[in-house]
Amino acid sequence: MRIAFDGTTLQPRRTGVGYYTEHLLQHLALQVAPGELVVVSNRPPDTAQALPESVEVAVAGSSLVRLLWMQTMAPCLLRSVGADVAHFTNGMIPLATRVPTVVTIHDVSLTLYPECHPRRRLLLNRPLVRLAAQRAGAIITVSHSARRDIVRVHNVDPSRVHVVHEAAAPIFRPVTDAATLDAVRRRHRLPDRFVLSVGALEPRKNLPRLLEAFARRKRAGDLPQSLVCVGPYGWLSRDLDARITALGLDDYVRFTGYVPFEDLPAIYSLCEMFVFPSIYEGFGLPVMEAMACGAAVIFGRGAALTEIAGDACVDVDPLDVDAIGDAMVALDRDGERRRALGARGLARAREFSWHRAAQETLGVYRTVLARQPAVRRRSIAPGGHARPVPDHSVLLGQAYYLRFDPKLWEAQQPYPPLGTLYAASYLRARGHRVAVFDAMLATSESEWAEALDRHRPRVAVLYEDNFNYLTKMCLLRMREAALTMIRAARARDIPVVVAGSDATDHPAIYLDAGASCVVLGEGEVTLGEVVTVLQGSRERLKNVAGVCFRDADGIDVRTRAREPVRQLDDLPRPAWDLVDVERYRSIWQARHGLFSMHLSTTRGCPYHCNWCAKPIYGQRYAARSPAAVAEEIAWLRQQYRPDHLWITDDIFGLAPGWIEAFADALADRRVAIPFKCLMRADQVTGRVVAALARAACRTVWLGAESGSQRILDAMDKGIKVAQVEEAAGRLRAAGIAVGFFLQFGYPGETRDDINQTLDMVRRARPDDIGVSISYPLPGTPFHDRVRAQLGPRQNWVDSSDLGTMYRATYSTEFYRVLHQAVHAEFRVRKATTLTPVLRRPWTLRRAHVRQAASIARHLCALPLLRRRLDHLSRLDEG
Questions:
Q1: Could you write out the DSSP letters of every residue in 617-670?
Q2: Which ranges of 649-797 does DSSP label H, i.e. alpha helix?
Q3: 3-state helix, strand, coil in the chain (%, to 5)
Q4: What per-residue confidence (pLDDT) applies to 304?
């Protein structure tokens, strides 16, 4: 991928956009191969740090101003450098180029706050920014707040707008060296004690109100400091001197003008507080820089700055002069609070990095390229010779369609295919151009066929989401979808790789349908090697560990087993940018009033429950570090603002001390988000419960399975019924909701065992339950035990099937009625949750009405269901 990068803002005495451009360029250069990055500009770029030798520079049209150069010379320059994608960093793009473009739009102040810009900028820049928003292949912006404004103001598809947060440059850190501080103080004639403001002196930065607030408090004797304003003069700022004189501040305000970049950290470190009362920002880089230097920060309350600063700073109404003054006086009088804010700001600033911004920006480039028609392109090398550009694209999908599972479609709690996103991220890190087809929200397999035609991948991959427990059950409707998807790819002569539980257990089914290769077990590393092989000679598949393929003679070949990934922290984060997160958000919020996302902290399970299959990770257990998980949660919060998390682990926090360390890591970063997880009852100690509460855990699901100790022992579960009830009590006492997974139909289970399970639920009073029927999965002792009883149908069609595929004590119809009866009784017992509403009827909401109707319905159905159960059990026992 050859990237043309806009260098027109890399000029002397640059401010925000210029710094953004330089930091991003320097970090992109560290992550791409030599020859992949070329800076295009009308003038030679001026950077604080020399560009790496691997970065090319192409300059043409130096006599032209930037706006004119962009529309005249830039398209020719992009062709001459052989660009596959071009990134322009200041809101405008060349409108005549055929090269796919990415544009960074930092904010929409030209439209929302026209009074803060000169007429020339409104007449020339505003229409060009709007055209760029409409025509660019993708838009990058620097905050979720700015993203919402761009979508609304420019009426663009939200999926085209990507948030990539800025960060403070590495140079911004607390300066403690006395000589350095003294030199900077003398160089810029800074007073001993001062309040600091940084930014171009223009109307949007709201400096007149800051001056007025400072003057009032200075006259009242409340502020002993002077005010230092750092930044170049901007539009409508030349009357500031007269304003200062009128306010009587000539002796107390110091304008430094433009300050060299390398002096700013010391100035931030010298100030007693930093005040940034801007009326509107897309990001607010000075706030981030001040936090990174340990300064106590006051900022003007606005969506972007609130998003960036979190609770690490003091926010005020930027239009309220008295509020600005009150905040400054309060901080001046409370040194302990200033120090606390400084420490909090340091921690907050560490959550942002230019390295990550560069990674995410590269992901946007790849997304734009993946959307281009898969025609074999030819581009012009710098020397002027045509050169072919290879297509290394990979289209990943999975075969779990939520619409094909009526029960879960009705629940409307979709999560993107996390395992698929991990695989996409891993391939992308290896240099492959990747796109994802998300079957979860698709209507049918025909959309996969459309994606194949749109992307024209070199390789198609069906990578099932191994973090979705339903993939282990290998539902027949989803297997049918996978086979249809394989045939669609083969009809287009695209090789197909399949990875997942069912393919690992039954590779021949997928090879018969036309798959080129099946990945066995854990897949990322294996997939990376397979994709590379399939772009060359298939003969080399025999050298790849962990695959099954069919040789030239039609014989199935299994290669040696793949070593598992042991250092999970080394895997890149899931490629969330490749799915439509906003569509998931809208579904969740419409049905549940919140937005839930998911993540994984572990892989595998070391326990030996004899009905539980482990086709992907085996008997091992690997865990990420608590710090890495906390960092991912911080990143998810910055990028997507979820209200809730589902931690998908088979067993959360099994390693001793892990949950306690996790709670500490979240507290250090101040990023706790309510979550639910699955644990074993014997894990739930007093210390663990306290740590879960600190970490904002809202729900713990326990694999209770049965209230009969005899059945638990037969399952090799390794827990006691008393432990389940004790764990539920501890969790509820700490304010953590409890869910029970219940399993009926295990061989030898009697009606008495079933009643013991119901009694356990009545005593423990869980907040929610999940009911299933024992399901024989390949590779388990349970499956081996009932293998001889299994007929041709060995899988459920969908999750509501509940068929017994072996000789259980009772019939399939009995267990289906039991499923209904258990849920009906549970819902009726939940009627007590409506008691507070009955006492305070003015709190009644539509959800309460729906709940009451559901309770009434179940109350009517329950006696009939119990009679039906008794009748069926007599038939089966007779």
A1: TTT-EEE--HHHHHHHHHHHHHHH--SEEEE--SSTT-STTHHHHHHHHHHHHT
A2: 658-669, 686-694, 709-714, 721-733, 751-764, 781-786
A3: 45, 15, 40
A4: 85
Sequence-distant (≥ 6) Cβ neighbours of residue 670 within 8 angstroms:
310, 311, 312, 344, 347, 348
- Cβ–Cβ under 8 Å, residues 616 and 504: yes
HSE (side-chain half, CA atoms, 13 Å) at 689: 18
Residues of the chain where predicted confidence (pLDDT) is lower than 70: 13-15, 201-202, 233-239, 373-392, 537, 831-851, 854, 878
For residue 443, give every residue at least 6 positions away whose Cβ sits within 8 Å of its Cβ, in sequence order, or none. 401, 403
| Pairing mode of beta strands 138-141, 101-104 | parallel
Quick one: CA dihedral 235, 241, 247, 250, positive or negative?
Answer: positive
Which residues make Cβ contacts (< 8 Å) with residue 485, sequence separation at least 6?
397, 399, 445, 448, 460, 462, 496
Residue written as token pair 């287009």: 492
Q: How far apart are CA 741 and CA 702, in angstroms?
A: 6
What is the rounded CA–CA span in Å between residue 504 and residue 509?
A: 10
Question: CB burial class (10 A; 0-12, 13-18, 19+) of residue 281?
Answer: buried
DSSP secondary structure letter of residue 790: -
CB 77 within 8 A of CB 58: yes
Q: What three-state secondary structure class fits 680? A: coil
Tell me, rounded to whole angstroms, the distance of Cα 800 from its chain centroid: 30
pLDDT at 388: 35
Percent of the chain with pLDDT over 70: 93
The span from the CA of 451 to the CA of 398, in Å, is 13
In the structure encoding, which two tokens stand for residue 95, read together?
């409108």
First to last CA, the chain: 72
- As given in the structure block, the two tokens for residue 379 are 């581009």
**If DSSP codes are grouped into helix, strand and coil, which group holds residue 747?**
coil
Q: What are 862's two structure tokens? A: 């329950």
CB neighbours (10 Å) of residue 187? Answer: 14
What tens digit of pLDDT does each residue of 68-100 get?
899 999 998 998 888 999 999 999 999 989 899
Write down the pTM of the prediction.
0.59
